[in-house]
Specification:
The structure holds 2 protein chains of 2 kinds. Chain A is of the alpha/beta class. Chain A is built from 12 helices and 4 strands; from the N terminus they run H-E-E-H-E-H-E-H-H-H-H-H-H-H-H-H. Chain A has a 4-stranded mixed beta sheet. The N terminus of chain A is likely disordered. By secondary structure, chain B is an alpha/beta fold. In chain B, 35% of the residues lie in helices and 22% in strands. In chain B, strands 6-7-8-3-9-10 form a 6-stranded mixed beta sheet. In chain B, strand 4 and strand 5 form a beta hairpin. In chain B, helix 3 packs across helix 4. The N and C termini of chain B lie far apart (67 Å). Classes of the chains: A alpha/beta, B alpha/beta. The complex binds adenosine-5'-diphosphate and magnesium ion (MG). The site of magnesium ion has 3 residues of chain B, from helix 1.
């Protein structure tokens, strides 16, 4: 295929790129003629397809009917030069346009990128190892942060006037307002679901009234505090991470630190206290609605009057059950606040950083809640509560 | 100012800084004299912000020492550190105004933290600082309600709240129109003349460099350090580094068009 031949085939505007090989007169020199329009977006010949398995002492490249060209031609020539270098031939391109030569020279002066130390695909063991390391460092981070917050609270106890009470109040208000509707709905439904499950079993023994015991205990000891905590972790905890993450990205946290203001004292403590105070209140509210849900099922489906249901609940559910649940939720609140603030303050300074911080705050929060709950189950069991 | 001021406000000795394993700057040493306006310039990614973060204590140096007024900042204990931090004003690249607070609260916080001024006095100072930067009466606005240029000026007002002895600027000209830029420069000069402030400015703005700079430090990414130092006129005329000369000499004229884009390179090669 010759340059003029391909010229006729393609539209007048765009000539196809050509590279032709001619054996030189002496047989030892190869002549490569490049022509046509060389465009990265169009198919272009590759050096190997042109030269093939031929060997030559030297290669000379010349332009023939060369139209518009871009980096694709430079790449082609660079490949040619590399080929010559490898087979110890000399490569001559003096006959090419000056700017093309200059560009080719720049390719030669560029340092080849170093190969990555490790390939992106890791073995399962290596992957596990990195996961393990990540977990270890994250656990360390959490412990450190707990320490910082504890020191901060000691400082607050010494100088309560320096605490950002207004911020704390605002956060409490926001936590309450954003969680209340969902906590109401979810807790009521949890009560309904528990009552349904219990009723099916207990009715077989004619012991339907004990639904009240079961729902009451399950809700007050576990489901109320846990469900409320999950909802707050997803709303308020994620909110903390997003707020603080944004402040980190915008250098607002740096601005605090260079003023000598501790970002833990200024940002984390008010939020921590706010959610730690709100959590038992919300848990108490969740308890009440859960019992209401159980009562609703009992009165409508089991024909147990509300009064009887309430008396049965009162008989079975003691003060220690309620206070135990609320005591736990205090710690759930702190766990949520810790996870949210920690993730926010350790946020990456990138566009994706805040998103990652937010979702990771929710995951960490829920994880800490469940861990704390398991720990409390153990402790309460030992103490016989 | 008394005569007993030390010869240097900032003294950086063999400073290396970076992130984890990567060293961005290595063995950097320089001094900043009282009331000096020092510009730090260099290509993007060469470590200007990193240097600034080290100077204001946000990044721990890997090695070396930074001293303010003859007292080491790197080895200072918490109380000494706080004393030094009190003398800083910082204008961040992203302004970093606290978004949940009004401008008045933004300027008030440094005053609350480091002074025992009464509420009335603070109010007075806030009004004064806002007036200085041309934002009179914007006390109750939130940062999000301001334009970029106004935010920059508000951030400057906050940086100047404590009448700091040293002000650090990270790219103050970014996102400013030429008129606001000029006003900003004049404001910087005014502050320096009034309070004898020492200033360290990271910037690419040539007009500002020639208008303001007493001395320029040029950082380089490959050298991981300072490749040139001197007054702007001096560097423009006879820096040993051609790229520094070129950069400083391009005032007013754009780079010349040539038909051969890389004509300065050698055009001949074989093999
Ligand atoms: N948080 C960070 N972690 C790791 N590397 C960073 C970080 N911030 C900046 N760098 C790297 O340090 C170098 C200098 O960055 P920087 O000081 O921001 O440059 P500039 O001079 O443009 O302000 C860059 O190569 C950048 O990739
Ligand atoms: Mg920068």
């Amino acid at each position: 295929m010759t340059a003029s031949h391909s010229l006729m085939q393609v539209s007048a505007e765009l000539k196809a790129a050509t590279a032709r090989l001619e054996a030189g007169p002496l047989g030892s020199e190869c002549l490569v003629k490049v022509g046509g329009d060389w465009r990265l977006s169009e198919p272009v010949p590759s050096w190997n397809s042109v030269v093939g398995k031929r060997t030559a002492a030297s290669v000379r490249v010349v332009a023939e009917d060369l139209g518009k060209w871009d980096t694709s031609l430079v790449l082609f020539l660079a490949h040619g030069r590399a080929w010559c270098l490898e087979s110890k031939n000399s490569f001559h391109a003096e006959a090419l346009p000056g700017d093309l030569q200059a560009l080719l020279l720049r390719v030669s002066t560029m340092v080849a990128p170093k190969p990555m130390a490790k390939s992106a695909v890791k073995s399962n063991w290596a992957l596990l190892e990195t996961v393990e390391k990540k977990w270890a460092s994250q656990a360390m981070e959490i412990v450190t942060f707990v320490g910082e917050c504890a020191l901060g609270f000691i400082g607050v106890a010494r100088k309560p006037r320096r605490f950002r009470w207004m911020d704390c109040l605002v956060q409490m208000q926001q936590c309450w307002a954003s969680s209340l509707p969902i906590v109401s709905l979810v807790s009521f439904l949890v009560g309904v679901i528990l009552a349904f499950q219990a009723a099916v079993q207990l009715q077989q023994f004619g012991a339907a009234v004990y639904v009240a015991d079961l729902v009451g205990l399950a809700v007050v000891r576990e489901m109320g505090p846990i469900m409320a905590a999950m909802i707050v972790a997803g709303g308020t905890g994620a909110g903390f991470a997003a707020q603080l993450g944004n402040m980190k990205v915008d250098e607002e946290i740096d601005a605090l630190e260079t003023l000598g203001i501790s970002s833990v004292d200024f940002l984390a403590l008010p939020r921590l206290l706010a959610v730690a105070i709100m959590m038992p209140i919300l848990a108490f509210y969740a308890n009440a609605l859960g019992i209401l849900g159980g009562m609703f099922v009992s009165t409508t489906m089991l024909d147990i009057p509300a009064g009887a249901y309430w008396i049965e609940t009162q008989n079975r559910v003691g003060l220690s059950d309620v206070t135990g649940g609320l005591f736990k939720s205090l710690f759930f609140g702190m766990a949520i606040g810790l996870a949210g603030c920690l993730r926010g303050m350790k946020c990456d300074r990138s566009a994706a950083g805040v998103g990652t911080a937010t979702s990771s705050a929710v995951v960490t929060g829920i994880l800490l809640i469940i861990l704390a709950d398991a720990l409390f189950a153990l402790i309460f069991n030992v103490l016989g509560i | 100012m008394t005569n007993s001021t030390p010869a240097s406000v900032i003294e950086v000795k063999n400073l290396s800084c970076g992130y984890g394993e990567t060293v961005v700057l290595q063995d950097v040493s320089f001094v900043v004299h009282p009331q000096e306006l020092l510009f730090v310039i260099g290509g993007s990614g060469c470590g200007k912000s990193t240097l600034l973060r080290c100077l204001i204590g946000l990044l721990k140096p890997l090695r070396g020492d930074i001293a303010y007024f003859g007292k080491s900042f790197t080895t200072a204990d918490a109380a000494q550190r706080r004393e030094i931090l009190k003398t800083f004003g910082v204008l961040y690249q992203n302004n970093a105004l606290w978004s949940s607070m009004t401008l008045a609260e933004n300027i008030s916080l440094p005053l609350e933290e480091h002074t025992s001024l009464s509420r009335e006095d603070r109010k007075e100072i806030i009004a004064l600082k806002l007036k200085d930067v041309g934002l009179s009466g914007s006390e109750e606005l939130y940062p999000s309600e301001l334009s970029g240029g106004m935010q920059k000026r508000a951030a400057l007002a906050r940086a100047l709240a404590l009448d700091p002895a040293i002000v650090f600027f990270d790219e103050p000209s970014e996102g400013l129109d030429p008129i606001t830029l000029r006003e900003m420069d004049l404001l910087i000069l005014h502050v320096r003349e009034t309070f004898g402030t020492t200033m360290v400015i990271v910037s690419h703005q040539l007009s500002s460099i020639f208008r303001l700079a007493d001395r320029v430090i040029v950082l380089d990414r490959e050298a991981r350090g300072i490749i040139a130092e001197g007054s702007p006129a001096e560097l423009a005329a006879n820096s040993t580094n051609p790229r520094v000369r070129d950069f400083l000499n391009q005032v007013g004229d754009s780079p010349k068009r040539t038909n051969q884009p890389f004509a300065d390179k050698e055009n001949h090669f074989s093999k």
